[in-house]
Amino acid sequence: MSSIFAALGTAGNALDVLEQAMAVVQNNVSNASTPGYVTQTLQLNARLFDPSNNAWGGLAAGNVQSSRSVFAENSVWAANQQVGSATQQSTALQAVQGSFDVTGTNGIPGALSSLYSAFSAWSNAPDNATNQQQVLAAAKTVVQAFNTTASSIDSVRAQANQQTQTAVKQINLLSSQIAAVNGQIRDGGQHDGGLDAQLYSNLEQLSNLVDISVQTESDGTVSVLMGGQIPLVTGETANPLSVSASNPPGGSASGPPPQQIIAANGQDVTDKVQQGQLGGLLQITNSVLPSIGGGSNQQGTLNQLAQSFADRVNTLLTSGQTASGAAGVPLFTYNSASSSSTAGTLAINPSMTPSQLAAVDPGPPRVANGIADKLSQLQNPSSPSDKINGLSYTDFYSSIATNVGSLASSASQEQITSQQTLTQAQNARSQLSGVSLNDQAAALLEFQDAYQASAQAFSTIRNTITYLLQTMQSLQ
User: Is position 111 within any domain?
Assistant: First the structure.
């Protein structure tokens, strides 16, 4: 009789375990679209079957197992880091590229061309007041073109600086959330599928912002390092980052300072940030933009062009004379105290009047239009003094625009390629550990069949026990 009661208990226990298994399947289906969620499976264990020792076997529920693949997660994070960096660089570089005209008809090249034409007309009639006025008007257009381009670069820089601040705030927020989840895991949530999903969703978001490496600890918590060295999360502790901007000692250009990332312990860890949105933004603000618009340690090619052109025009004019014999005066002014702000501060000499334009080359021999003619030849220079790095001013500008275009094209292509890589990595992860509704439906049918069989066994055993008890009572 005891064996029958044991069989009843075994069948009843099987029903409980199968109900748990079906509940896990239902949870999988419900969370199929939850970010970070992976398939959970209830581990089913066979109980010891040894009737001689009153062990009657049956089914036991083990832990809920996660199908998460660490390799697949790392692949997604690596690709996501590249997407974040390439996207930020592509966006910024496209904005910079829009400031550089490559047709030669607008912007700085168009303005230079108009000024060369005005110089040429003035050379043909140096005492003509209209020609003199046209030179000043064309020079103002050149100033405006340089000022506008410099302002556009400064705008991109300011936006990138603000985005850097935002990215660091997001990194700190996600780090705090991961630390909080670690605390919940330590409090008994190690096998909680919801906490697991939240944790890995946060990690994926974090990987888009900065390059991370993740170490899973024995208690189920994770430690997160930035750049493989700087701790962002350790157990339940988040280590916040901050942004600082200061000119390094010995800087010669006095331009905008570089953006520095400071760790919780005060260490400058900027060089540890290579990927993610933060890495892309630092590349733009600390390298690309300073090379064009100037920075704390470099003049920038745009400022180099503006200063070289202004200096050459001023040198020629101040070496000449007006028709009345008055000494020539400079046409352009700029802030000479900061070589990285030349393009932005370039202006027309406020005391300059059209009649002060010095067209005469005093020689010897004296040439009435000598200076005006030299200025008109700046468009197609033959003298090294009229060139910058061996290029005409227009060609030097074209080299800047070409470089910006090349960088923008490379960043755009990298964005496309890295996004494709990310999609492939996410698809591979989904195949390995994502919820397959077809697989879950098949598992549910299997558990339902087993449940029905166990229920039938339970009912049969119960009826048998009832019959035996009734028979025993009738015999008394």
Answer: no
- Determine the structural domain holding residue 311 and report its residue range: 134-150+300-394
Is the sign of the CA dihedral 379, 380, 385, 389 positive or negative?
Answer: positive
Please state the φ and ψ torsions of residue 242, each to the nearest 5 degrees: -145, 165
Same domain, 329 and 346: yes
State the pairing for strand pair 59-66/237-238. unpaired
In a domain, 35, yes or no: yes
* CA-based nearest residue to 185, from 202, 169, 168, 173: 202
Q: Is residue 214 part of a domain?
A: yes
Tell me the pTM.
Answer: 0.86
Question: CA 266 → CA 228, 241, 243, 270, distances in Å?
Answer: 18, 9, 11, 12
CA separation for the pair 208, 231 (Å, rounded): 17
- Residue among 159, 140, 138 nearest 148 (CA): 140
349 and 388 both lie in a single domain = yes
Q: Do 77 and 189 belong to one domain? A: yes
144 and 83 in a common domain = no
For residues 247 and 262, membership in a common domain is answered with yes
Residues 6+ apart with CB under 8 A from 60: 13, 17, 44, 45, 46, 47
**Each residue's pLDDT expressed in tens, for the chain with a length of 476 residues:** 456 666 666 766 777 777 777 777 777 787 777 777 887 787 888 777 767 666 666 777 777 777 788 899 999 999 999 999 999 999 999 999 999 987 878 899 999 999 999 999 999 999 999 999 999 999 999 999 999 999 999 999 999 999 999 999 999 999 999 999 999 999 987 778 888 899 999 999 999 999 999 999 988 899 999 999 999 999 999 999 999 987 665 555 567 889 999 999 999 999 999 999 999 999 999 999 999 999 988 999 999 999 999 999 999 999 999 999 999 999 999 999 999 999 999 999 999 999 999 999 999 999 999 999 999 999 999 999 999 999 999 999 999 999 999 999 999 999 999 999 999 999 999 988 877 778 778 877 777 777 777 677 666 766 776 766 677 777 76
Alpha helices in 185-220 (DSSP H): 193-209
Q: Which residues of 141-177 are buried (b: 16+ CB within 10 A; e: fewer)?
A: bbbbbbbbbbebbbebbebbbebbeebbebbbebbbb
Gap between the Cα atoms of 456 and 462, Å rounded? 10
Q: Determine the Cα–Cα distance for residues 122 and 369; give it in Å rounded to an integer.
A: 8
Number of domains in the chain: 3
